[in-house]
């Protein structure tokens, strides 16, 4: 059975919790993902920041040219994450529910990477093709 660790992107950008909002927006836009994991000084996962979170902050009344909003100010705390040992099929079942489209992959409180719904769909579709499904 295919596992998350075999599909995850381990080269994913990480956002420092103390990074300015403008830096976070640039990093997310350059990443190709809809959001990125947020880490602390010990490289541990502390949150998740999505494009939607950033957009909300950029248009909010509290944001203006002299604003000093950081990632920590607008990130979602305690994000859902998955183990690298989780099977892709189990993750697909989780993704079929009302869940995020992206999951940080964490082991022993350390961020290893990220996996997306697209990666899971592609892997499952490839498995079906390889066994002759039409």
UniProtKB/TrEMBL annotation:
<dbReference type="InterPro" id="IPR044729">
    <property type="entry name" value="CBS_bac"/>
</dbReference>
<dbReference type="Pfam" id="PF00571">
    <property type="entry name" value="CBS"/>
</dbReference>
<dbReference type="InterPro" id="IPR051257">
    <property type="entry name" value="Diverse_CBS-Domain"/>
</dbReference>
<protein>
    <submittedName>
        <fullName>CBS domain-containing protein</fullName>
    </submittedName>
</protein>
<feature type="domain" description="CBS">
    <location>
        <begin position="8"/>
        <end position="67"/>
    </location>
</feature>
<dbReference type="InterPro" id="IPR046342">
    <property type="entry name" value="CBS_dom_sf"/>
</dbReference>
<feature type="domain" description="CBS">
    <location>
        <begin position="75"/>
        <end position="130"/>
    </location>
</feature>
<dbReference type="InterPro" id="IPR000644">
    <property type="entry name" value="CBS_dom"/>
</dbReference>
<keyword id="KW-0129">CBS domain</keyword>
